[in-house]
Amino acid sequence: MLSSRQRIDEERTIPLERYAEDGFASRYDYLLDLADCYDHDMVFMLADLLGPEEDFDGLITMLEDQFL
User: Fold this and answer.
1) Which residue did the predictor score with more confidence, 52 or 68?
2) Are 13 and 53 in contact (CB under 8 A)?
3) In 3-state terms, what secondary structure has residue 18?
4) Contacts by residues 32-35 (CB-CB < 8 Å, ≥ 24 positions apart)
5) Tens of pLDDT along 21-51?
6) What are φ and ψ of residue 3, in 5° steps?
7) Of the four, 4, 18, 58, 61, which is 20 to 30 A from 45 by CA?
8) Cβ 63 vs Cβ 42: under 8 Å
9) Taking the CB of residue 1, how many other CB atoms lie within 10 A of it?
């Protein structure tokens, strides 16, 4: 059985280089950083709902809409 971290990183559809451009080693690390700024459960729930292709667009927009 995969850990949450492994599952999240394996679902990644965006090249790892895109996360590295922002200083993250993985998608999971990127989401953890967002969770420090926003609600942890909300970040991971929305990331799961929207999918990895929305990590840098739709996810950010939805989080900002929820918390601003």
Assistant:
1) 52
2) yes
3) helix
4) 34/59, 34/60, 34/63
5) 999 999 999 999 999 999 999 999 999 999 9
6) -75, 165
7) 18
8) yes
9) 4
**28's tokens:** 């999971």
Q: Which amino acid is at 5?
A: R
Evaluated on CA atoms 57, 60, 63, 65, the torsion sign reads negative
- Tokens 């969770």 belong to 35
Q: Collapse the DSSP code of 43 into the 3-class scheme (helix H, G, I; strand E, B; otherwise coil) and give the result.
A: helix
Q: What is the pTM of this model?
A: 0.86
SS3 36: helix
